[in-house]
Amino acid sequence: MLGRMIQRIRGLFERRPPQHGLDPTQAMERYQRGIALFDNGKWSAAEREFTAAIMSSIPIAGMYHHRGSAFAEQGKHMEAVADYDAGVRLRPDYPDLYVDRGNSYHALEHDENALKDYSEAIRLRSDYAEAYANRATVYAVLGDDEASRQDADEATARGIDRAALEELLAQAFKARRE
User: Fold this and answer.
1) Per-residue pLDDT tens digits for 18-43
2) CB 122 within 8 A of CB 135
3) Alpha-carbon span 121 to 118, nearest angstrom
4) What is the DSSP letter of 158?
5) Using CA atoms, how far apart are residues 144 and 173, in angstroms rounded to an integer?
6) What torsion do the CA atoms of 54, 68, 85, 7 make, to the nearest 10 degrees?
7) HSE (CB half, 13 Å, CA atoms) of 89?
8) Distance between CA 174 and CA 176 in Å, rounded?
9) Helices (H), 16-144
10) Domain boundaries for CATH 1.25.40.10 within the chain
11) Under a CB-based contact definition with an 8 Å cutoff, are residues 66 and 31 in contact?
12) pLDDT of 94-134, one tens digit each?
């Protein structure tokens, strides 16, 4: 069911006609305004700016990535996944897209998809501490304590604060989705 909903949302985004009158410079200005709004926690306004930039018909993975992040910050994880999918199609070698899509999948309780995304981010960037930490958390939720411990060790070795990670893992162990 979730897959169909994401497909439907993705289809809505892909069918929108480009706005005429926005040239590439204007699109990039809207995109930069969106980033500034996002950085100030104004996610709905940022979403509108990113949408305007995307509608200009300039396919840039970062625009989809940022709009997906604005959706995620608003709890709109299905829309976020659809945008992260678009970003991945445009830039399959960008590990941050996989981590953020994995986070939205995890929020939607699609943990197998989250694991795949975190693993792909690690494949693309073997020193990605956040991907290891997030994957450790999902393994904990799923009950794979050994894999969780291994990834927690990797995340810590790459700079993640162990105490903060242990707190997240403790919460994950309590919330197991077996």
Assistant:
1) 444 567 888 899 999 999 999 999 99
2) yes
3) 5
4) T
5) 10
6) -90
7) 11
8) 6
9) 24-39, 43-55, 61-73, 77-90, 95-107, 111-124, 129-142
10) 1-91, 93-178
11) yes
12) 999 999 999 999 999 999 999 999 999 999 999 999 999 99
- Name the CATH code of domain 1-91 (choices 1.25.40.10, 1.50.10.10, 3.30.420.480, 3.30.70.1280): 1.25.40.10
Residue with tokens 């990834």: 151
pLDDT at residue 176, rounded to an integer: 75
Mind listing the pLDDT tens digit for each residue in 47-70? 999 999 998 866 799 999 999 999
What's residue 95's pLDDT? 98
Query: What CATH number has the domain spanning 93-178?
Result: 1.25.40.10
| Token pair of 61 as six digits | 């993975």
Compute the distance between CA of residue 66 and CA of residue 54 in angstroms, rounded to an integer: 11
Which residue is associated with the tokens 């693993």?
119
pTM of the predicted protein model: 0.85
For residue 100, give both structure tokens: 């953020």
Q: Confidence class of residue 173 from pLDDT cuts 50, 70 and 90?
A: confident
* Angle at which helices 111-124 and 95-107 cross, to 10°: 160
* Whether the Cβ atoms of residue 34 and residue 66 lie closer than 8 Å to each other: yes
